[in-house]
Specification:
InterPro entries: ALAD, ALAD_AS, Aldolase_TIM. By secondary structure, this protein is an alpha/beta fold. The protein has a single domain, classed as Aldolase class I (TIM Barrel, Alpha-Beta Barrel), CATH 3.20.20. The chain is built from 13 helices and 12 strands. The protein is globular, with a radius of gyration of 25 Å.
Length: 351
């Protein structure tokens, strides 16, 4: 061992003695001790800035044809598709838990899908039958329906495919007509997720012209071309159908100013509330929308977000319940007025 090594070793072994001139903590902080209000559970609760309540929850509900059928979604542990009769029972359960609203998404039989998604216009399609049945049994719960064409098309896109292109204006005309059909069935909120230009204004006009001025529009104002949608596409049966991608109409994940322009346009066309999708990777968008427009703002904690938490919890890598609650509280902190989440029943029971 050389002299340098002996000196370093001795220094490491010797305890450090504070200098006589060292300032006290009170001198450093000016007497401001920020831990004071964190010292006890009661004081932490007293100063908590954001809270998650059951009133913040919207439950996405997957639908299938048939009777007395429940099909678990393999990629989404704890989530199932339900036939209309069982969907009614689930809606009754959500109402008992105090959840204000549900959002329905159908898995349409392949035989009823075509290039234009024409079955979306059928007054007796799966979405409309479920809406009528749920409203008859549970009138107090809100029903949110989507008019995007992806559950109805043979190619898995949200609009009509012509010569390799998703045609905007023809799609807008069809989804506006479908929105009227959903309102007739009893939908309280139309939530167009297709991201076509002009869709919100066309839907507002169509609803108003048919006497549905009271039906609101929740705009998927900022829906991004995300990698987090995979389990959802399995749930509605479009995962293996999609030809190409959706980048020509969904937002680029790199863009925030564009997201604001989309939201501003939708509000100008008559949107009553805004939605950001996906959720956790886009909390900055939530904050910007809330700060910019001060409108009711929602986020969709999408299937990939849900499944990641579930998978990590199943493997013992994280505490699933704590991660679930923390993730949802993050939406509130970012400015959300409500959250679409597959965790809704679990959270409502815990709350």
């Amino acid at each position: 061992m050389n002299k340098f090594s002996r000196t370093v070793g001795a220094a490491q072994a010797a305890p450090f003695a504070p200098a006589a001139t060292e300032r006290s903590v009170d001198e450093i902080t000016g007497g401001r001790r920020l831990r004071r209000m964190r010292k006890a559970d009661w004081s932490r609760r007293l100063v908590q800035e954001n809270r998650l309540t059951v009133d913040d929850l919207i439950w996405p509900l997957f639908l299938i044809e048939g009777e007395n059928r429940e099909e678990p979604v393999a990629a989404m542990p704890g989530v199932s598709r339900y036939s209309v009769d069982l969907a009614v029972k689930q809606a009754e359960r959500m109402a008992r838990l105090g959840i204000p609203a549900i959002a329905t998404f159908p898995n349409i039989d392949q035989a009823r899908r075509d290039e234009t998604g024409s079955h979306s216009l059928d007054a007796d399609n799966l979405i409309n039958r479920a809406t009528r049945a749920i409203k008859a049994a549970v009138p107090e719960i809100g029903i949110i329906t989507d008019v995007a064409l992806d559950p109805f098309t043979s190619h898995g896109h949200d609009g009509i495919l012509r010569d390799g292109e998703i045609v905007n204006d023809e799609t807008v005309s069809q989804i506006a007509a479908a929105a009227v059909g959903q309102a007739i069935a009893g939908a309280d909120i139309i939530a167009p997720s297709d991201m076509m230009d002009g869709r919100v204004g066309a839907i507002r006009d169509a609803l108003d012209n048919h006497g549905f001025q009271h039906v609101a529009i929740m705009s998927y104002a900022t829906k991004f071309a995300s990698a987090f949608y995979g389990p959802y596409r399995e749930a509605i049966g479009t995962g293996g159908l999609l030809k190409g991608d959706k980048k020509t109409y969904y937002l680029d994940p790199a863009n925030t100013d564009e997201a604001l322009r989309e939201a501003e346009q939708d509000l100008a066309e008559g949107a009553d509330m805004l939605m950001v999708k996906p959720g956790l990777p886009y909390l900055d968008i939530v904050r910007r929308l809330k700060d910019s427009f001060a409108m009711p703002t929602f986020a969709y904690q999408v299937s990939g977000e849900y499944s990641m938490i579930k998978a990590a919890a199943t493997n013992g890598w994280i505490d699933g319940e704590k991660a679930m609650m923390e993730s949802l509280l993050a939406f509130k902190r970012a400015g959300c007025d409500g959250i679409l989440t597959y965790f809704a029943p679990e959270v409502a029971e815990r709350l």
